[in-house]
Amino acid sequence: MYKYQIILYWSSEDESYIASAPELAGCMADGETMEEALENIKVVIGEWIETAKQLGRKIPEPKVNLSYTMQN
Fold first, then answer.
1. Would residue 29 be called left, alpha or beta, if left means φ above 0 and alpha means ψ between -120 and 50 degrees?
2. Read out DSSP for 44-57?
3. DSSP structure class, residue 62
4. In the chain, fewer beta carbons within 10 Å around the N or the C end?
5. DSSP designation for 39
6. Torsions phi, psi for 29 (to 5 deg)
């Protein structure tokens, strides 16, 4: 399990929840519910890291951030 920060928010434009891992450039996922977006970002983070390994790119170390923000 990777410990990257995940930002979760509602996008009116996309009409879905968006989850992003800002430490991993371009790593984002969406879902109809918050739970679905979170499950999807877990998959995308794994794929992002696997692709970076295959391409020989540096994988950022997760930063420790204990803050929690949620928007309704």
1. beta
2. HHHHHHHHHHHHTP
3. P
4. C
5. H
6. -150, 165
Mean pLDDT of 11-19: 96
- How many C-beta neighbours within 10 Å does residue 19 have? 24
Residue 14 resides in a domain: yes
Q: How far is CA 1 from CA 44, 59, 62, in A?
A: 12, 15, 11
The tokens for 67 are 């803050």
**CA angle 51–26–44, rounded 5-degree value:** 50
How many angstroms separate the CA atoms of 65 and 39, rounded? 20
What's the rounded Cα separation, in Å, for the pair 51 and 54? 5
Q: How many domains does the chain have?
A: 1
At 25, phi and psi to the nearest 5?
-50, 125
The model's pTM: 0.83
Task: Indicate whether 28 belongs to any domain.
Answer: yes
